[in-house]
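Per your request, structure below.
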């Protein structure tokens, strides 16, 4: 395929590098920053820079923040060749995907969203790598009327660039699960580093601190967009977390060691069951 990638940040740049390394697709790149485009050409992450002809693309991958992605699609989709397959890598689907699908259909374009579950603490093209998606989870979120051919093409592409477990689910279920597995974790990390002890942690921290704080360096513009577009599912998960934290706090307040032991045991048992379940799951 001729594949146009719009937005050469961490995900877009890594997609280009991975496709150039592991596939035979022709990779065309577009970024507002022309220096980034030149860097991608220099790195052989692209076959060429996009010059405005959308009709040459069989697949367009929009790798922008959700608000920017939707704006870009609305402004440019009328220039796409009829029958082009459009996808995005945004961490939100649900109503976002429904709006994009409607716009796509009005312009004779097929749309199907994806979400590569891969990333780093720091974004941008210069942190991108061809190995970012190796053994990662990769979500494809079709609609009931999406073409099997399109699902299969995106599944094959995910496999080619190294994805481990490829999950096919609805846009709504994507958002429900991502609220728990990704967005909630980012909020917890952001809140955790707001302790006044943060600047005094050097020499006192280990792996648990690093794990808890790693994603606090998230981009506030992108994640605010993601949180607000998934607010109902995210509020639900936050309420559950807050209720559970209150139980631990109550055990401390009441000096109830047995209750604390019970709470910790419950958490351990749930995670052990989760690990046993994961071992039995196919890739």
């Amino acid at each position: 395929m001729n594949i146009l990638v719009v937005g050469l940040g961490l995900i877009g740049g890594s997609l280009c590098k991975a496709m150039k390394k592991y596939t035979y697709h022709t990779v065309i790149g577009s970024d507002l920053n022309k220096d980034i485009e030149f860097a991608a050409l220099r790195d052989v992450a692209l076959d060429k820079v996009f010059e405005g002809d959308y009709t040459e693309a069989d697949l367009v991958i929009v790798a922008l923040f959700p608000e920017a992605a939707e704006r870009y699609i609305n402004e440019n989709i009328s220039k796409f060749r009829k029958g082009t397959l459009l996808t995005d890598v945004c961490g939100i689907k649900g109503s976002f995907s429904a709006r994009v699908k409607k716009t796509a259909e009005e312009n004779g374009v097929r749309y199907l969203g994806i979400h590569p579950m891969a990333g780093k603490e720091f974004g941008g093209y210069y942190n991108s790598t061809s190995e970012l998606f190796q053994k990662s989870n990769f979500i494809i979120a079709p609609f009931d009327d999406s073409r099997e051919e399109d699902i299969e093409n995106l599944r094959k592409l995910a496999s080619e660039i190294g994805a481990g477990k490829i999950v096919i689910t609805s846009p709504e279920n994507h958002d429900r699960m991502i609220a728990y597995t990704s967005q909630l974790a980012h909020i917890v990390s952001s809140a955790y580093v707001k302790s006044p002890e943060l600047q005094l942690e050097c020499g006192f921290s280990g792996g648990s601190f690093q794990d808890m704080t790693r994603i606090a360096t998230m981009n506030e513009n992108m994640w605010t967009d993601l949180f607000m577009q998934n607010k109902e599912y995210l509020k639900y998960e936050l309420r559950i977390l807050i209720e559970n934290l209150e139980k631990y706090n109550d055990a401390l307040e009441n000096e109830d060691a047995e209750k604390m032991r019970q709470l910790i045991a419950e958490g351990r048992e749930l995670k052990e069951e989760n690990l046993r379940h994961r071992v039995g799951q196919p890739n």
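Residues 231-253 form the longest helix (23 residues).

Regards,
D.
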